[in-house]
Amino acid sequence: MEKIILTGDRPTGKLHIGHYVGSLKRRVELQNSGEYDKIFIMIADAQALTDNADNPEKVRQNIIEVALDYMACGIDPEKTTIFIQSQIPELCELTTFYMNLVTVSRLQRNPTVKSEIKMRNFEASIPVGFFNYPISQAADITAFKATVVPVGEDQMPMIEQTKEIVHKFNATYGETLVDPKILLPDNEACLRLPGTDGKAKMSKSLNNCIYLSDSEEDVRKKIMSMYTDPDHIKVSDPGKVEGNTVFTYLDAFSRPEHFEKYLPEYKNLDELKAHYMRGGLGDVKVKKFLNAVMQEELAPIRARRKELEQQIPQIYKILQQGCQVARAAAAQTMKEVKDAMKINYFDDAALIAEQQQRYQDAE
Ligand code: TRP
């Protein structure tokens, strides 16, 4: 069986370092591993519209931002098909048929949808399109016969729901769809990188994100004002590293070579943490180290983005070509689905002959 990756992001803003460590970095590694036959990355504009129906301009503006962020991080359109969800009508067709295989109560139990409904104050009146988006996500994944879906932890319920739809479809109509596997980051800190204020999630509205496109100065400022341990007041005080955002970020970003380069008095993160917990290590020193580490990681991304920002028409061209490639792949699956569901009336010569025969026999 071919090894195929499908993944994507909603274009509701620029991508931040939570996206980067949670999934984007891994996608680039997978792309460059040469282990996959096909890789698709989708800009999920149709899904973004499920809770931004009144703000199409926001979605429209952010398509190019997400494409720039992808390519700046190393997604290479020669190796990966980057495309836009709304341009693939087969995804809507598949969604419609999958809707027959899912119950309302099952959708209501999806924990990600549940928490999003709360966050958006949709409790009183949930738009049907929004409620339905896990089914549409199953269409995204299965249309491309994805075997692997590299995403953040919050997407786990979507993949579970997709697997259920695949099983139900195959049991009902015959073996047709491919069962996908989720691929999560293996580093604990990367699973759910907190915001710079220590809150559980980075979010634009909370103003606690570090964006891939932030300037060097912005990144430095955000790091220097980051949430740490509120009880660590004097340098000599013992400090907590658990729930301390600076250390969570170091868990996600730092490697032993960074210590050699920027903080040679410590061998590794464990030693630095031990000193902090003992007391005698100030926040500023740790933050300055984190800044050095993160600037090293972000500088090449920022530089590539600056170059790409001068080639906007070419990037739209790349997206357009990506949509053509994606459309062909989805159309093939659509054909197989229609065959399995017996809604292929005009491709089935036997059906037409049979129907004729039935009437002739009756005479
Ligand atoms: N739900 C994803 C997000 O919020 C975006 C997405 C849409 C997606 N379809 C997908 C991710 C299919 C992986 C596979 O970012």
Can you lay out the helices and strands and say which pair or pack?
Elements: E1 4-9, H1 17-33, E2 38-43, H2 45-49, H3 56-73, E3 81-84, H4 90-98, H5 104-109, H6 111-119, H7 128-131, H8 133-143, E4 148-150, H9 156-173, E5 181-183, H10 188-191, H11 216-224, H12 245-253, H13 256-262, H14 269-278, H15 283-308, H16 312-341, H17 349-362
Parallel strand pairs: 1-2, 2-3, 4-5
Helix pairs in contact: 3-15, 4-8, 4-16, 8-9, 11-15, 12-15
The structure holds tryptophan.
Tryptophan is lined by residues 6-10, 44, 47, 137, 140-141, 149, 151, 155.
Description:
The protein has helices at residues 17-33, 45-49, 56-73, 90-98, 104-109, 111-119, 128-131, 133-143, 156-173, 188-191, 216-224, 245-253, 256-262, 269-278, 283-308, 312-341, 349-362; strands at 4-9, 38-43, 81-84, 148-150, 181-183. With 363 residues, the protein is mainly alpha-helical. It has two domains: 4-192 and 312-352, HUPs (Rossmann fold), CATH 3.40.50.620; 214-308, Tyrosyl-Transfer RNA Synthetase, CATH 1.10.240. The protein has a three-stranded parallel sheet. A two-stranded parallel ribbon has the order 4-5. Helix 9 links the parallel strand 4 (148-150) and strand 5. Helix 4 (90-98) packs parallel to helix 16 and helix 12 (245-253) crosses helix 15. It is elongated and about 100 Å long.
